[in-house]
Amino acid sequence: MKNSINIAHGFLSILYSVLILFLFEISLASCTQDELQIQQNFPFEISVMPTPKNISKDETVEIRFQVLPLGGYSETQYFLRYFQYDGSGTLQYFNNTPYLPNDLYPLLQKQFRLYYTSTSEISQSFTIWIIDNFGNEKEIKFQFNIKD
Asked: Is the separation of the CB atoms in 140 and 48 below 8 Å?
């Protein structure tokens, strides 16, 4: 009886050692990559406050934007580009020089205001693209009818 208890105890000790070695092997096998994978490329959304539908020549409209990243990488850089395809006007940030169509401008903040000034007596349409340094982009279209 004592002999069979010793055999069972020896068998359990061997089984326990094999289990520990198996778990150790699994933990080593899961560490085969040399570098840590960190996600940097996150999509984003753009929030735009409502704007008037009608505008007069030489009238300025404020357009409020907010970039809403869907991830938490703080080194993402955002840029703005615009193109006016109907009518004429200027788009600028605060009192800065008006933006040129199709040029890329860095955004220094995720929440900002742009000012569009009509220089036309006809309806105006333009598109603004917000782009990040990973190639993600969002297109926002604006159309203003001329006030009667």
From this structure: yes
- The pair of structure tokens assigned to 130 is 């917000």
CA–CA dist 92, 111 (Å, integer): 15
Give residue-wise pLDDT tens across range 112-123.
999 999 999 999
116: tokens are 């569009």
Compute the average pLDDT of residues 102-106. 96
Helices (H) and strands (E) in the chain, counts: 1, 9
DSSP, collapsed to helix, strand or coil, labels residue 85 as: strand
Asked whether 65 and 112 are in contact (CB, 8 A), the reply is yes
pTM, two decimal places: 0.73
44 in Cβ contact with 69 (< 8 Å): yes
Retrieve residue 98's tokens.
Answer: 């008006």
